[in-house]
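Ticket #4471: complex job returned nothing on first submit. Input attached below:
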Amino acid sequence: MNLMEQIIEATVAGDPQRCASLAQEAVRRGIDPLTAIEEGYSKGMAIVGEKFARMEYYLPELIRCADAMKAAMEVLRPHLDKGEKGGQGSIVLGTIQGDLHDLGKNIVRTMLEAAGFTVHDLGCNVPLRQFVDQAEERQADIIAASAILTTTMAYMPDLVSLVGETGPRGRFKVLLGGAPVTPEFAAKAGADGYGENAARGVDVAKSLVQARKEGK
Amino acid sequence: MTDFWDVYERSETGPFVKEADFDRQVGEAAAQAVKKNGLRFDRREVIPSDDDLADRMYQAGLDLFLELGIYCKDSSRRIKFSRGEVEWALKHAPASVTYGQGRDARTMRYRGVEDASPPFCANTSVGCTVAEERFVSMVQSYAREPLSDTFSSAFSQTVHGRPIKNGTPQEVEAAVWNVLKLREAAQAAGRPSIGIHNLISNAEKTDAILAAMQPELGVQPNDGLAVAAMAEMKVDYERLKKVVYLNHSRLNRYGLYGPIMGGYAGGPEATAVVHVAHHFLGLLAFGAQWHDGFPLHLMQGCNSTRDLLWLIAVTGQALARNTRLLIGVSPFTAAGPCTEMVVHEIAAVVLAATVSGLHLNLVAVARNKLPEHSSGMEARIGSETGHLVARQRLDRGQANEIVKKILAEYESRIPEAPQGKRFDACYDLATVRPTREYLDLYERCKEKLGRFGLDYSRL
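Support reply: We reran it on our side without changes. The output follows.
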């Protein structure tokens, strides 16, 4: 088994010590850290994501595997060139104003991080203004908001409006999700994307970042 | 013994723990409990008849509760209890709860495993979103069902034309409006004094809820409110404020618990352990008179899957065999109204629940997600099945065989379940009666379910 295969195996096993030691081994051998991430850890997390989608893994396993990858990232990060960090894009994420239910948001965060996004998790009950301010401060690509209550979902159109009222609407993509949110509601609210579930949310986030790069 | 103020004081003085660490501990403790107690989900035994499994599940849930305690999100502290405190609370838990007045009064009592008494049917659309002009019709469709012991609310998209936003003045107005309209619907249904088990489902903030708790608006002394835990094993001060209010009122209350299978706890066995533990949370922190669970599948958003049916059955048996708590479950289906699949899903969940000692809170359909997709007809289907299971005196083995046949009808279709019809397409809004199409569909389904072993002639 070569080093990349070992990295994938350790990531899927959710073994932080082994993931970190394999990262050290990659550095010692002079392997480009970005290659180790993209060909090793990210591929391992892609397998983890598939297992999670099939419910072969549950949330505790998903968190454990993400933690294992983070342990490797701690080793590799100092060796990355500037500009290589968070290659997929930057997202500010939170449950919308009034909403305290964060299980779905936390799953999305874990899967976004595993997919290579830089995620700024603003937590629960995030005021609309804070989403926009933080997105500006972090120079984010995407604002992602979730709601589990119908009374908090009602703030989502206001969030999209606020993005437009405080600057050019297109400077951030807005991605919405959560139990009561439907594609129709997200479209009517003016969102750029809708995540039916965590895996779909990651796919949509990737396409939104790509669209942004292409100036769409 | 403990009282509410012990709970509050512990929320301020208990051990500090970061929320993410508590979430991890839930999964670790549940996994250890599963291993220690040899708990195993058997795909062939959807409704187990294994008393020892039920008792081990109960012990696992109790031990997990004693180990983890409850997490208070506002203080980031753990509220812990001793075994003696839990046992005292169980010993002095309410033996019954009555909703409604006069001829509409109904009483929920303890049910055991394979109990011949019918389940209490607290029927509701579980907050299904509906246009303001159809709100009264939709909730009336539940109140008018003869087997509805109580009813509750849909969620109006607007009130006086304005959307309802959490924490705003409009939320207070909406809560008041909700109570007025629920009582109006009860009167329109010819059951003016029927109990409302949860008066508010369109407001979260305590100030909005309190504003609506007035007799002048139609609130009866023994109507009630739900107090919901947060996944998993968490409370906050907004919920505990509601408890203080309830302690000073004559209203009834129930605990509401929705553990997510695949979430922080893990798989079906671990989630079952956490679900049992939630009942101790509700008893000790909320003073709940009865307990309603809506365990859900993380990916499918329903509880008609094979593993969730098992979870509902085994947790019901665990609690019914080891306590005298009043316990219930809310079926959540993937399919929507006026489909064969929704009939089958409701029947499966109700079978698993009713033979396992549970009452019913009927019913959330179309994954409780689609606006306008809910009707009293689904409550009728669930109530009739629940009463039938009790009247036939089905045992767990018989129910298991029937459920497996029903599962074969819909299990593979859960991910792509039909959305079904809107309320205004499966009900005549003038008469608030189901359409002939829906009634005929139900009759065809009853014929099929009859062949599986449900004898509808006994209704």
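Chain B touches chain A at residues 23-24, 27-28, 31, 73, 127, 129, 155, 163-167, 171, 202-204, 230-231, 236, 238, 260, 262-267, 270, 298-299, 301, 368-371 (CB under 8 Å). Closing as resolved unless it happens again.
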